[in-house]
Amino acid sequence: MLKYSLMFSLLYLLRDSEYLWSVLISAFFIFLTVHLWFGYKTKVWTTALGNVNKL
Description:
With 55 residues, the protein is an all-alpha fold. The protein has 2 helices and no strands. Helix content is 62%, strand content 0%. It has one domain. It starts with a helix and ends in a 14-residue tail after the last helix. Keywords: Membrane, Transmembrane, Transmembrane helix. The chain crosses the membrane at residues 20-40.
């Protein structure tokens, strides 16, 4: 909940700024990088989940 409150507060403060799109694009790539790195580190794409391999 705190994450979304901070995000919407930042968007509200930057709504008329010339930096809005650069902040949004930078945040998108940072979040995407963290998402992919976390998936790689936890081996989420190579580990079987439950009985998936027994089908």
